[in-house]
Structure formats: C-alpha cells, structure tokens
C-alpha cells in the first residue's frame, strides 16, 4: 500500500509539472496552439503570386526601380510666411499712435494706423507703465482711454505753490506731484471715489497722517502707503485692478503700486494736496 501511494504521488507530481509548463508557454506566439495544430510555415506568409513550386531554371527578377513621384503627387512647397508680429493691430491703433507720438516718452511710433514691431514695443512700454493688462501691445479701448487721460492732464490747473504739492485731477482721473512748478511725478493714473455718496471731494488739503500699511476697519483690507488728508480719505496703493471703471474707491485716491511707493517717498505730514475737477459719472 505504501509503494502504491508513493507511485501515485509521483504520477500526480509529474502531471502537475506538465500542466504548469504548458500553461506558462500557451501564449508564446512561436508555439503551436493548445489543440495541437501545426504552426504555419514561414514561407506560407510570403505572397509569391504562384500556386505551384518555383521553377529552378528561372532567373531572379531584378529589383523593381523606385518610382519617381509625379508632379501631381509632390507636396506643394510652403510659401514663405511673413514674420509674425508680437501683437495684433488694435481697434484704436491710429488714435493711440498719435497720442504716444505726441507724448514722446515711450519710444518711437509711426502714425499710420498699421501695427509694426516698433509700434508694438512702444505701446507695450506705455501699457506696462500704467498697469494696463494684458500688456500685449494691442491698442484696445483701455489703452486708448488711459492715453487720452494722460494727454489731457494739464499741470497748470493744479494750484501748486512753492515746494511740493500733490495734485489730483478728478476729471481725467490722474495724479501729479509738482515741486516748485516742475512735475516730478506723473501724470499717472488713479481711481477716485465712485458715485453713491463716495465721491472724492474737491478742495485744498494737507497730509495729516501717514502709515506704511494702514488697516481699513470698515472694509477689512490693508491700505499700503497710506497718506490721509481729509475725513478718512487718502492716497494708497490700489487693492484691485485700477482700470476697472465699473467700480471705484470709497473716496480714497487709488494708485498703482510703484506710484504709491514714489508718492510715499516724496510726501510728509504737511504736504499740500489740491483736488480739482469731477470724476465722470459722479
């Protein structure tokens, strides 16, 4: 009984090895199928075009010549493309060109209503200076609006005496700093109080309080480079996009970051402030 059981165990072990071996190679592409079918001869996969055996006396045919593509099959050569400009032509191209040419401080520009690489560069310089986004060189409505306001600002309308005066032109929404009759900052862009009781009041004032970073209790926001001049109203760095004309401040004079820092470096307690004109729509 022990001998039979031993023989039986050995037979079972051989059978298991055989099955496992077959399973491991069942999906090898070069092996016959599990049903025992013969593998397909390699020669059978070559298409000769003849059903009988090859003629031993036949000579090997020459290799076929590579056909030359006809003119109709050749791909047309791409036409050389003109160099693409860095920015497209804007809806206010000629208008902006004329204003920037008159201002003359942002680079050369040609007044012809057509965009060029140099025009694009000059318009970009203007947009970057005044925080127009995107600064892509396209003369769009925001760029045109800012350019007209800068060009229309007349420093002579600010009642600046001797020494330093901060000037706020409400009509053109611009700010200047004038010292002894000479403009030392601006004109640059601002956004003042909006309609609904938040208008920035015109008048003559003086800076009476300054703080590098003031907290606004009513509006829960920091006001960088704060310079107060009347009834909770003062100069400070803008906390939103300054060219969003649909909104305004709650009376304060919003400035671009670089302008707010510059005005802060110039001012002190006692610096005169002249606010004049009226913001459109208020």
How would you summarize the topology of this molecule?
Elements: H1 2-25, H2 93-103, H3 117-129, H4 141-152, E1 164-169, E2 174-179, E3 182-191, E4 203-206, E5 209-216, E6 221-230, E7 233-237, E8 253-255, H5 257-266, E9 272-276
Parallel strand pairs: 1-9, 7-8
Antiparallel strand pairs: 1-2, 2-3, 3-8, 4-9, 5-6, 6-7
Helix pairs in contact: 2-4
Pathway: Cell wall biogenesis; peptidoglycan biosynthesis
Protein name: L,D-transpeptidase-like protein
GO cellular component, one term: extracellular region
Output the CATH homologous superfamily of one domain.
Answer: L,D-transpeptidase catalytic domain-like
Which strand order do you get reading across the main beta sheet?
Answer: 4-9-1-2-3-8-7-6-5
Would you state the CATH class of one domain? Mainly Beta
- N-to-C CA distance: 113 Å
Order of helices and strands: HHHHEEEEEEEEHE
For this structure, the CATH topology of one domain is L,D-transpeptidase catalytic domain-like
What's the count of strands?
Answer: 9
Low-confidence stretches: 1-62, 79-84
- Tally of individual helices: 5
User: What value does the average pLDDT take?
Assistant: 79
Organism: Asanoa ferruginea
Keywords: Cell shape, Cell wall biogenesis/degradation, Peptidoglycan synthesis, Signal, Transferase
GO molecular function, one term: peptidoglycan L,D-transpeptidase activity
InterPro entries: LD-transpeptidase (IPR050979), LD_TPept_cat_dom (IPR005490), Transpep_catalytic_dom (IPR038063)
């Amino acid at each position: 009984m022990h001998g039979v059981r031993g023989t039986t165990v050995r037979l079972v072990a051989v059978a298991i090895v055989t099955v496992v071996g077959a399973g491991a190679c069942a999906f090898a592409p070069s092996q016959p199928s599990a049903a025992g079918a013969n593998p397909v001869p390699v020669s059978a996969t070559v298409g000769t075009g003849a059903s009988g055996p090859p003629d031993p006396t036949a000579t090997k045919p020459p290799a076929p010549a590579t056909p030359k593509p006809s003119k109709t099959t050749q791909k047309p050569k791409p036409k050389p493309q003109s160099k693409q400009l860095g920015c497209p032509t804007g809806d206010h191209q000629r208008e902006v060109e004329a204003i920037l040419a008159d201002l003359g401080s942002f680079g050369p520009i040609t007044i012809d209503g057509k965009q060029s690489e140099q025009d694009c560069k000059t318009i970009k310089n203007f947009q970057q200076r005044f925080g127009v986004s995107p600064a892509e060189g396209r003369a769009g409505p925001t760029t045109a609006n800012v350019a007209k306001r800068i060009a229309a600002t007349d420093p002579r309308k600010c009642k600046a005496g001797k020494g330093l005066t901060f000037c706020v032109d409400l009509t053109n929404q611009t700010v200047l700093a004038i010292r002894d009759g000479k403009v030392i900052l601006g004109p640059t862009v601002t956004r003042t109080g909006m309609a609904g009781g938040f208008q920035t009041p015109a008048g003559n004032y003086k800076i009476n309080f300054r703080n590098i970073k003031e907290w606004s209790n009513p509006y829960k926001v920091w006001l960088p480079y704060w310079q107060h001049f009347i009834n909770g109203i003062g100069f400070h760095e803008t906390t939103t996009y300054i060219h969003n004309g649909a909104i305004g401040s709650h009376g304060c004079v919003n400035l671009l970051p670089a302008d707010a820092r510059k005005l802060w470096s110039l001012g002190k307690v006692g610096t005169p402030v002249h606010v004049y004109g009226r913001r459109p729509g208020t």
